[in-house]
Design a protein that fits this description.
mainly beta; Immunoglobulin-like; four-stranded antiparallel β-sheet; three-stranded antiparallel β-sheet
Length: about 100
C-alpha cells in the first residue's frame, strides 16, 4: 500500500494505491491539524486498486493517520510541525 497526500487549493487529496489486501475491509482515516482531530472517514477497500479521499486544508501542519483493523498502517504529513524554540528558557520547576 502506498499513500500520498497532495495539497489542492483548500483541500488535501489522499491518493492510495493498494497492491494487495488480506481481505476486503474498512480503512479508517483520522485527519489532524496540529494535535486536534478534525475529521474521521472510513474507506471500504474491496481489493487492489486506487482509492481517493479529500480533507479540508488550512494553514499549518496536518497529519493523516490510516488504521487497518485498529492498527496504524501509515501516517502522511503536510506542512511543518510547530516546534518550541530550543533557545527559549522554560520554567523547569524547582531545581
Amino acid at each position: 500500500m502506498v499513500a500520498r497526500l497532495f495539497p489542492e487549493g483548500g483541500e488535501a487529496r489522499l491518493l492510495l494505491q493498494v497492491e494487495r489486501l488480506p481481505r476486503p475491509g474498512y480503512l479508517h482515516l483520522k485527519w489532524f491539524r496540529e494535535e486536534a482531530l478534525l475529521q474521521e472517514k472510513a474507506l471500504f477497500l474491496e481489493g487492489p486498486g486506487t482509492y481517493e479521499a479529500r480533507f479540508p486544508l488550512e494553514d499549518g501542519y496536518h497529519r493523516l493517520l490510516g488504521l487497518w483493523e485498529g492498527r496504524p498502517l501509515f501516517q502522511v504529513d503536510l506542512g511543518t510541525p510547530w516546534l518550541p524554540d530550543p533557545e527559549e528558557v522554560k520554567d523547569q520547576g524547582d531545581r
